[in-house]
Each structure stands twice: as structure tokens, then as C-alpha cells.
Design a protein that fits this description.
Blueprint lengths: L2 H27 L5 H17 L7 H23 L7 H29 L3
Helix pairs in contact: 1-2, 1-3, 1-4, 3-4
């Protein structure tokens, strides 16, 4: 395994971890699921997203789910952070955060897409 492939796998694992943590934090804070159940969901989500990387045909599941969650994180975080700045600020910050999340997901999952295409 080359150094580039190792760093690509690291980025994909980081993206999976961020997406899993986002699900757990959302469940604990917004849905008010008990903390232990939220932690269990984090572990299950991470294992599922990482397990999708084992089969070339299932990599797209991890890319779509993880990328969507990561894009949503950016949108909700920037919109929430900008609420106190101006009444219309969340309408600008939300889409901007979504775009930042999309670009971050593309950067993190680009090597996973190469695996899915069979280029590796």
C-alpha cells in the first residue's frame, strides 16, 4: 500500500467518524435519546459505513450516506452559528455551509470512489 493510498483511507475513515458522531450528537441533543443509546448508534453507524468499504459495490453507500451527513453538518452548523448575527444570516450561512460540506465530502471520499470504480 502506497503512502497516498494510506492517507486516502485515513480521510475516508475520518469522514465516516465525523458522520457517525454527527448522528450520535443529533440523537443525544435534539431527539433526546439517552447518551448510551446515542453512543451505541455512533458505533453501529461507524461500523456500517466502514463495512461498506470492504466490498467494491457497496462503497457507494458509504459515499452517499457519509457525504450527505457531512454536507448537512456544515449547513446546520453555520446556520445555527449565524442566528444571532442578523435575522436573514441563516438563509445565507446554511447554503454556504452545505456547499462547504459537499466540497469537504468530495475531498474526503475521492479515494473511495476510485476504489468503487475499480481503479485501485
Amino acid at each position: 500500500m502506497s503512502a497516498g493510498a494510506a492517507s486516502g483511507v485515513g480521510l475516508v475513515m475520518t469522514a465516516n467518524g465525523i458522520a457517525s458522531l454527527a448522528i450520535g450528537i443529533y440523537l443525544a441533543m435534539e431527539v433526546e435519546v439517552p447518551l448510551l443509546w446515542s453512543l451505541a448508534v455512533v458505533v453501529v453507524a461507524f461500523v456500517f459505513l466502514t463495512g461498506c468499504l470492504l466490498d467494491r459495490r457497496m462503497v457507494w453507500i458509504a459515499i452517499v450516506l457519509g457525504g450527505s451527513i457531512n454536507a448537512g453538518i456544515g449547513a446546520f452548523m453555520l446556520a445555527a452559528l449565524s442566528e444571532n448575527l442578523h435575522p436573514k444570516a441563516p438563509w445565507v450561512a446554511g447554503p454556504l455551509g452545505f456547499l462547504l460540506g459537499v466540497f469537504a465530502s468530495i475531498w474526503e471520499y475521492k479515494d473511495a470512489a476510485r476504489i468503487a470504480r475499480g481503479d485501485d
